[in-house]
Amino acid sequence: MSEDLPRPSSINKHSKIMNILSKVAVTVEPVASARLAAAIVYKNDIISFGVNRKKSHPFQAQFCKNDKSIYLHAETDAIKNALRVVDQEILTKSTLYICRMKHIGTNRREFVYGLSYPCSGCMKAIATFNIKNVVYSLEHDGKNSVAFNSLLR
Ligand SMILES: [Zn+2]
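A: This is the predicted complex of the input protein with zinc ion.
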């Protein structure tokens, strides 16, 4: 997997989707203080959303051998939900977006972006379904905008 800067034409699209995901993520019940939302995007359509939740799920357990990581992660939730509406072939041509939101300091009402690099279990799911593009949020840099990186396989 190589890390590449997104092509300029993709940056607006990435920002737009990250913005939508940030609004979903802040409504998520935090799991170990993490609020994550993910989406599968095919061409310009969001085909599924996913959030992390404190609920074990066989779909996640399939990719994580560690007992503590069987909770459904936003990434695998989005993949699972996408498979209900599209076939695997579409999934390989889609982009997985991941966004993490967190509190800054002691202000419990303000959120900033956080790093949402996928864990090894989710990486395994991403590889299994051959999803070639992954865009994840980066730790906030003091600005109010989202910074992101993309993984191209
Ligand atoms: Zn994960």
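DSSP finds five helices and seven strands in the chain. The radius of gyration is 15 Å.
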